[in-house]
Amino acid sequence: MGRWEPGTRERLHSAALRLFAENGYEQTTAADIAAAEFFDDERRSTARIRRQIIDRNPALLERERAKYAQFADAAHRALLDRGVHEPAATLAAESAMVAFRTTVSQWLREDETRSWREIAAEMLGSLRQISEVPTSAG
Asked: What is this structure's pTM?
């Protein structure tokens, strides 16, 4: 069995159409579509097993870290392409990856029962909240 199930594009398309019908086009985000397809409760137990295997294998753990770094780099380049300047592009890309990794870690906890979307909203809310904290610097 391959690492990825076949038909990813079709499954994402189907998830998008379902969410557009349920929530409306303007209210549906790419994160909602990804969460519906890749981070549903049916996949959580398998993802927990995967996480345990990765955590116990240094080579796999390093590969996972490299993959996250590639995601952050891709987000950084996309932000630059959209006209976001430095250092904001770096801060946004790296912060997004921290929020994503934290969401994944929380979602995979054995005692966690909330949906991916609920956890992600909490993590992004926390990130937003700490970014609004006034500093003592002039």
From this structure: 0.75
List, for residues 101-124, the tens digit of each pLDDT value. Answer: 999 999 999 999 998 889 988 998
The set of residues, in sequence order, having a beta carbon less than 8 Å from that of 102 and lying 6+ positions away, is: 123
In angstroms, the CA 21 to CA 8 distance is: 20
Q: Contacts by 128-136 with C-beta closer than 8 Å and gap 24+?
A: 131/95
- Tokens at 126, concatenated: 């926390």
Instruction: Express each pLDDT in 10-51 by its tens digit.
Output: 887 888 888 888 888 888 877 777 777 778 778 898 899 999
Cα angle, residue 82 at apex, residues 79 and 86 outer, rounded to 5° = 50
CATH-assigned architecture of domain 41-131: Orthogonal Bundle (1.10)
